[in-house]
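Ticket #4471: structure output looks truncated?

Reporter: J.K.
Steps to reproduce: submitted the chain below (133 residues) through the standard prediction queue, then opened the result file.
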Amino acid sequence: MSSRISPELTDAQWRSIAPIFHEIRVDGRRGRPAHNPRHVFAGILWILVTGSVWSKLPEQYPDFRTCHRRFKLWFDAGLVHHAMERLHGEQGLALCAAMAARMQPWRAPAGRKPRFPVASSLRWPLARPFVER
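Returned output as attached by the reporter:
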């Protein structure tokens, strides 16, 4: 194996990790069909290898917001670590560790209140009622 990991995902590599990313869709679920997990993981792999920001993801991959949302779900579930270890061993785990170091929770600067109130049990901002001024 070379010392540098390629950002491209081959057919053989995908076959080795495809069972990790099987998608379960509930019948009758509304909305757009889910993106192909292979294309999403290929976008995630490109980000991990290049170290680029999500908004610079090339157009050949699904939208960067889709890839980022799935990355957060899969990363928290340990699927990205498992796949990267299977594909690239210790180098893959090192890339995951580097990405984990980049993933800092957003915090307001010292002395500044958050823009939106956040419930202590939630990580998402609470909706404020619309008030005309």
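Triage note (M.O.): checked the attachment and the full token line is present. The radius of gyration is 18 Å.
Status: closed, working as intended.
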